[in-house]
Amino acid sequence: MGAWEITKKDVILILKDRGALATLLALPVVFIAILGMSTGQLITTRESAKLVKVGIVDEDGTEIANRVFEDLDRIGGLKVDHVTDRDEGRLRLQDGRSSVLVILGEDFHNRIEDLDLGDIFDMEHGKLSAGLSAIDMQVESGAAFVGVADLVHYVVLSAVLRVVSPEVAKRNRLMAQFMERIMKRHQEALDNQEPATPKPEPVESGSSIVYQTLVPAFMVMFAFFLVNIMASSFINERKLGTLRRLQTTRITAVQLLWGKTLPFLVVSVAQSILLFLSGKVMFGMSWGTYPVMLLPVIFTTSLSATGLGLLLATIVRTESQVSSYSTFLVIVLAGISGCYMPRDWLPQLMQNVSLATPHAWALIAYQELLTHNHPDMWRVWNCCAVLATYGVITFVIGCRRFRKIEYAV
User: Fold this and answer.
1) 366, β-bridge pairs
2) Which alpha helices (H) appear in 241-376, and where do they start and end?
3) Which of 3.40.50, 3.30.1450, 2.40.10, 3.40.190 would CATH assign to domain 51-190?
4) Which H, E and C letters describe 34-58, residue by residue?
5) Rounded CA gap, 112 and 315, in Å?
């Protein structure tokens, strides 16, 4: 019996073990599906969920108020709806139908009429120094946007100023003449310009940057669940006496371990590819500018996971040790490396410590490929080299330990 025969035998055993297959393949997909449903980013709901829902209460009812509505509606990423009154708007904030509530008060138009150019150009000392309240406007943010309330106010104020500034300028005779000349020159330039071929609109990526980070993070974490399955497989073989019998044949320890490791390597690669496909279908996540470069990262990550699994398999002696050791490794290494939260959020000390884990190098490579339009390929290949080295070293140590262990029936 050679390494290939051992591989075929273990593949058959893995396929028959539905519990192991569910843990390695189905569980990660179910997990990110739940993540998608809980955030509204699953399948057909993802496009509307990515928009910030803005409700506008228009108590003024004038033309300029309507133009403010239209201007906000043109801002990408916003979904603007009319709301009947303040009470309805605040109810929508509470139940999540709106993320931001904009209220145009009854005195909005009159306050705009009172503005002059000085108020526009010197907002710190003019009538607009009080912000939106100076023009009888209010902006209320839902729970998800409380932390960026100032940014929301700034965006709304900018949209209002785009509408209001020309109206204020028209009331100044010199400014009105200046604007009329500018508009006349602009119109002449348009009349003399040859009709341009309409440019195609840029293709939207269809994915939030959050999911470009979350899906790879959970994928790396679940890849290392493999260590539990591998260690359990070795324990079962040891109980049955199979390993002891194989040691008495002509097959070498390296061939034996390679034959037993290869099926799990294949399953791990398949798991990662399945998760990326699920991310594409469920979240519309992009595979980056160079999707083919994901393959070496997937392979080397799986290589490091199977190497660690083999090393653990030569350390544990009982099923209880498999459960405790593997759970400790999976949870602690995932936490240290940044699988639970983006690595950039970790303190600098933790980021440096995380580089001792293969998880961190995989996350760095995925972040480079999935969140940069022009990824640094040298950095990606460097991460792959570190992951491959980690896998080889743990495999070699596992082989050396295996040779020294006397497997009892």
Assistant:
1) none
2) 242-247, 253-283, 294-313, 319-337, 348-354, 358-371
3) 3.40.190
4) HHHHHHCCCHHHHHHHCCEEEEEEE
5) 76
Are 264 and 229 spatial neighbours (Cβ–Cβ below 8 Å)? yes
Element (H, E) at 54: strand 52-58
Q: What is the pTM of this model?
A: 0.61
In angstroms, how far is CA 83 from the centroid of its own chain? 32
Q: Count the Cβ atoms, other than its own, within 10 Å of residue 298.
A: 25
> Cβ distance 51 to 79 under 8 Å?
yes
Question: E strand or H helix at 301, and its extent?
Answer: helix 294-313
Q: What is the pLDDT of residue 63?
A: 86
Q: Where are the domains of the chain?
A: 3-44+208-404, 51-190
Q: Which residue has the higher pLDDT, 339 or 359?
A: 359
Q: CA-based diameter of the chain, in Å?
A: 102
Is the per-residue pLDDT at 203 higher than 50?
no
* Adjacency order of strands within the sheet including 78-83: 78-83, 52-58, 100-104, 137-141
Tell me how far apart the alpha carbons of residues 68 and 92 are, in angstroms, rounded to a whole number. 21
What is the rounded CA–CA span in Å between residue 311 and residue 22? 23
The number of residues in the chain equals: 409
Encode pLDDT of 79-130 as tens digits. 888 888 888 988 888 887 888 888 888 888 888 888 776 766 666 777 777 7
